[in-house]
Task: inverse folding
DNA sequence: ACCAAATAGTACGACATCGAACCAAAGTCA
DNA sequence: TGACTTTGGTTCGATGTCGTACTATTTGGT
């Protein structure tokens, strides 16, 4: 298998696994929550409150337009609160509400429970071993994207 | 990191890499072709002609409704031809047209060229090493999905 | 042979995502 | 200070994907 084919195969597999895992999440998340909403809640929880929409969009690797939409959904459900950014009039800051925190916990519970049956089938060591590779690939693609859209 | 967290992290990383690679493809595929169309053309080329839409949908891990749409797009561009299935009145068969073949080659050329700059940054051995893991994960999720929707 | 259940594909409505165009606030530089 | 550029977010239109409901054909049991 030459390099190009390997790379195609690799990304093809990545794409399919991603689709399957997202489908899994979408099926098991409570109340019609979409995996992207879930990911955003988790990000807010991990990174902490007061982040700007753009920062979240970059972290999630979606466009800012998409993040506007995602945050609007979360805000309508009162899972996050969006305030003006005191240090920049163009910007906003995003906060997880208590309801958002609770919802995240509940969602994690549901997903974890649903995952219990399959989780045991995964080879923990193998997953752990491929993580650095994935992260490196992510960084490379990310840099390429930034470079493309930024300069050039 | 406990098992659940590892799995979450793993799928999160997979999702992001998938998004980035799809975005990369979408940016570099000619004539507004979407990565899913590209993947379908590649599948038809690899697996051979005369496959049914459902078989393609399963291989691509999308719903049959989605495949109906994808094939309609490809057919409108005359990259595939869809005929009745002689052995099953409900079914169809899909064929790559000469134009479809040519388009696929051109697309591969474009993408490969665009990828040349980043391809050298990938650690070939690492990608190769994580492929089996990805394939195993795919199989597990796939089986779970089939089980869920089929029985239960 | 007939009727029920399963199956392949389509139609429809909902929604996530994207790119491009746009607006408003900062920043920059003369 | 004032104009040009950059930057954070939103709006808009287009499109890919999904789930559900539906149609037509096939399969299977009696």
Result:
């Amino acid at each position: 298998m030459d390099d190009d084919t390997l790379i195609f195969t690799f990304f093809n597999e990545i794409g399919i696994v991603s689709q399957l895992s997202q489908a899994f999440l979408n099926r098991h998340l409570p109340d019609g929550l979409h995996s992207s909403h879930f990911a955003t809640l988790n990000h807010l929880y991990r990174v902490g409150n007061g982040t700007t929409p753009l920062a979240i969009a970059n972290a999630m690797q979606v466009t800012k337009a998409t993040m506007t939409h995602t945050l609007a959904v979360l805000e309508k459900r009162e899972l996050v609160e969006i305030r003006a950014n005191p240090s920049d009039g163009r910007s906003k800051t995003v906060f997880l509400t208590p309801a958002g925190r609770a919802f995240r916990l509940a969602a994690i519970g549901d997903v974890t429970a649903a995952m219990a049956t399959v989780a045991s089938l995964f080879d923990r060591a193998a997953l752990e071993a491929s993580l650095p590779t994935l992260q490196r690939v992510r960084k490379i693609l990310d840099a390429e994207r930034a470079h493309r859209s930024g300069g050039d």
Remarks:
- The mean pLDDT of chain A is 89.
- Chain A touches chain B through 58 residues (CB under 8 Å).
